[in-house]
Amino acid sequence: MHNTVKNKEIARIETLSHTKVADCYQCGKCSAGCPMSEKMDILPSTLIRLVQYGDIDRAASSTAVWQCVSCLTCSTRCPKSVNIAGVVDVLKQISLEKKIVHPKIKQVVAFQRSFLNTIYRNGRTNELEMVAEYKIRGLLGNPNPFFALKDAELGLPMFLRGKLHIKFGAPVKNKALVRRIFAKCQEPVTE
Description:
The chain is mostly helical. Helices cover 59% and strands 0% of the residues.
């Protein structure tokens, strides 16, 4: 029974990432080329090995999956064409679904959710709205009041350089199209 569950999880990862993790023979080229490997708690090749063994929760709860910058170097360097970056994306999804995101990464997830929520609502980013939501999410996860002020000193220099837009931008004309894109991305994958 236990192996059946592991096999289904591995099959789901392979389906969503469009790759076959069993093809990886651990040459290490993905880890050697990864620009973030020095910061990762688990190297890309080890993440793939954990998936091969069915230790999905350990792989998905690592900080490595959230430290990936999606540069695709790992997938490009793979001599067996394993889509390592795709597997990492699926592991992120699993970590959110199972609520096993590493505690050090909760602020990263809060930022990404705020970013995506702003796009969902407006069809584009709105910096002030996004930062406000992020700070509120952050305070819920970190009751330290200094968190809300952490980056405040950056506001004026960004505004003066034209990098921070104070006015709320108009939403895109076809917000329904943006919502359909989000809905399509959230559809369950059938095998």
